[in-house]
């Protein structure tokens, strides 16, 4: 990123700022369940309208106690992972028996996103941060301009519109692991049908007091033969 | 080639309404707990109220990231004040600090609409109301945020506030009792929730008086 500004003599170019994202991931969904947090995201990264990359891991562990899921610009996510890596490294180097929990990591991310927004050069991501430490479950979200909150279920992008309503209706305390996965799959299926940047290859990650497990990539079963979608133009001749 | 315009905004409105009413020896500060963006609700359980000092509570609505940053700055400054003066900041002092902090970012404002409530140095209720860049005044009651346009006229009617143009200035502190004031606040929010889409879910009420601080909640419509 060029750091010249218009005060440099004879140079009329201004400080470059992020204008728009290039390679982007779509929704991430996170829920609290009995033993910890479950997070789901598909493995797609789009280049505008092209579904360019189909094996991108958008959910990653952070330290011992947290998981981060990102939607938005993938290169900015990689930058964030590098910063978090450094953060965890320095935390470990203290070697004092203490370790950064999900609340702390969420706060660090919030400060990072807000400060970049203040410089008009945002990291173009919406992040989901979940984890368990000392039995306390934590799930939060940060947007690219620094808006942040925690809740029992969160989602980014299209997930906010399509998945949150399902979660508001069907989420409850002490979901079992199986029920949690079923609920996430239900949300991911709706996103697959209705979000054009979704791909049918997803990973579900789980974090509990014991540690992190990220599932192998798999596909959801879909059904395209609903009666209402057969002969779709029958009621409106000339449409497509 | 024309200079590229940014296609993202550094601001967002996360909605919500805040109200504060000053009494003879108490202060009521209230805000809803809904956080929204556009036509979506992000969360139904988010507090807009922040205790800055023993006798000083702030409620803010607007752009949540700026609100949180502002609360952090003020809390940090209060901690420094305590280290330097070995006492809590008074509400009028915090009032001035908030105004200065807001004006400091006059040319890239905190998009935060604040009401500050507490007890002044004589133990009387005091409410300060602000705009986004720090202009403020002490009033008997105030409302800010998305539902303010619905609530302020109702409070003007119920609290029969003397005109701020009168000389000598008449005390605007309400003669209502603490219970009556809390009831009034609940009525305000129930009404605002009906017509303002950004207000609802739950009402958080903080009451400051000589005995200390107390918190109360009331359910609001979730649609």
From TrEMBL, chain A:
Sorted alphabetically, which Pfam families does this protein's record hold?
Proteasome
- A GO CC term assigned to this protein in UniProt: cytoplasm
Q: Which GO terms describe its biological process?
A: proteolysis involved in protein catabolic process
Where does it live in the cell? Cytoplasm; Nucleus
Q: Does the keyword Nucleus apply?
A: yes
Give the keywords, sorted. Answer: Cytoplasm, Nucleus, Proteasome
Regarding protein family, the annotation reads: Belongs to the peptidase T1B family.
The job of this chain, per UniProt, is described as: Non-catalytic component of the proteasome.
Q: What protein am I looking at?
A: Proteasome subunit beta
Q: Which organism is it from?
A: Escallonia herrerae
UniProtKB/TrEMBL annotation, chain B:
Q: Write down the InterPro entries for this protein, in alphabetical order.
A: Ntn_hydrolases_N, Proteasome_bsu_CS, Proteasome_sua/b, Proteasome_suB-type
Pfam families in UniProt: Proteasome
**Classification via Gene3D superfamilies:** Glutamine Phosphoribosylpyrophosphate, subunit 1, domain 1 (3.60.20.10)
Q: A GO BP term, please?
A: proteolysis involved in protein catabolic process
Q: Where in the cell is it found?
A: Cytoplasm; Nucleus
Q: Name one GO cellular component term.
A: cytoplasm
Q: What UniProt keywords are attached to this protein's entry?
A: Cytoplasm, Nucleus, Proteasome
Family affiliation: Belongs to the peptidase T1B family.
Q: How does it assemble?
A: Component of the proteasome complex.
Function, as annotated, reads: Component of the proteasome, a multicatalytic proteinase complex which is characterized by its ability to cleave peptides with Arg, Phe, Tyr, Leu, and Glu adjacent to the leaving group at neutral or slightly basic pH. The proteasome has an ATP-dependent proteolytic activity. Non-catalytic component of the proteasome, a multicatalytic proteinase complex which is characterized by its ability to cleave peptides with Arg, Phe, Tyr, Leu, and Glu adjacent to the leaving group at neutral or slightly basic pH. The proteasome has an ATP-dependent proteolytic activity.
This protein is called what?
Answer: Proteasome subunit beta
Which organism was this protein described from?
Escallonia herrerae
């Amino acid at each position: 990123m060029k750091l010249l500004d218009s005060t440099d003599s004879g140079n009329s170019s201004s400080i470059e700022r992020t204008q728009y994202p290039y390679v982007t991931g779509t929704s991430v969904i996170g829920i609290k369940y009995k033993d910890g947090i479950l997070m789901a995201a598909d493995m797609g990264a789009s280049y505008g309208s092209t579904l360019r990359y189909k094996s991108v891991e958008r959910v990653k562990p952070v330290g011992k106690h947290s998981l981060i899921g990102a939607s938005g610009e993938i290169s900015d996510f990689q930058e964030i992972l590098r910063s978090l890596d450094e953060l965890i490294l320095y935390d470990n180097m203290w070697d004092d028996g203490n370790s950064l929990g999900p609340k702390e990591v969420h706060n660090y991310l919030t400060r990072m996103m807000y400060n970049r927004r203040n410089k008009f050069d945002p990291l173009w991501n919406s992040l989901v941060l979940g984890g368990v430490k000392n039995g306390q479950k934590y799930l939060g979200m940060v947007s690219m301009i620094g808006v942040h909150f925690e809740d029992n279920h969160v989602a980014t992008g299209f997930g906010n519109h399509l998945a949150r309503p399902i979660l508001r209706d069907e989420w409850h305390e002490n979901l079992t692991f199986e029920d949690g996965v079923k609920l996430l799959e239900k949300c991911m299926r709706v996103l697959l049908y209705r979000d054009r940047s979704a791909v049918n290859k997803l990973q579900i990650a789980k974090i509990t007091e014991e540690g992190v497990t990220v599932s192998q990539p798999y596909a959801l079963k879909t059904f395209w033969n609903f009666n209402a979608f057969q002969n779709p133009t029958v009621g409106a001749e000339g449409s497509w | 080639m024309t200079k590229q315009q940014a296609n993202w905004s550094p601001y967002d409105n996360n909605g919500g309404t805040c109200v504060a009413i000053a009494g003879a020896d108490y202060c009521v500060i209230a805000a809803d707990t809904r956080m929204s963006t556009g036509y979506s609700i992000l969360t139904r359980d988010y507090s807009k109220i922040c205790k800055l000092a023993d006798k000083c509570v702030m409620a803010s609505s607007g752009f949540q990231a700026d609100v949180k940053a502002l609360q952090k700055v003020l809390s940090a400054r209060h901690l420094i004040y305590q280290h330097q003066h070995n006492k809590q900041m008074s509400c009028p002092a915090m009032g001035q600090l908030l105004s200065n902090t807001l004006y400091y970012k006059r040319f890239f404002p905190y998009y935060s609409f604040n009401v500050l409530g507490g007890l002044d140095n004589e133990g009387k209720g005091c409410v300060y109301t602000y705009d986004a860049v720090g202009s403020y005044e002490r009033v008997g009651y105030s409302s800010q945020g998305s539902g303010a346009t619905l609530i302020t006229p109702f409070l003007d009617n119920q609290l029969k506030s003397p005109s701020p143009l009168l000389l000598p200035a008449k005390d605007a502190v309400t003669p209502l009792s603490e219970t009556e004031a809390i009831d009034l606040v609940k009525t305000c929010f129930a009404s605002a929730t009906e017509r303002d889409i950004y207000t609802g879910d739950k009402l958080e009420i903080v009451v400051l008086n000589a005995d200390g601080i107390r918190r109360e909640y009331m359910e609001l419509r979730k649609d």
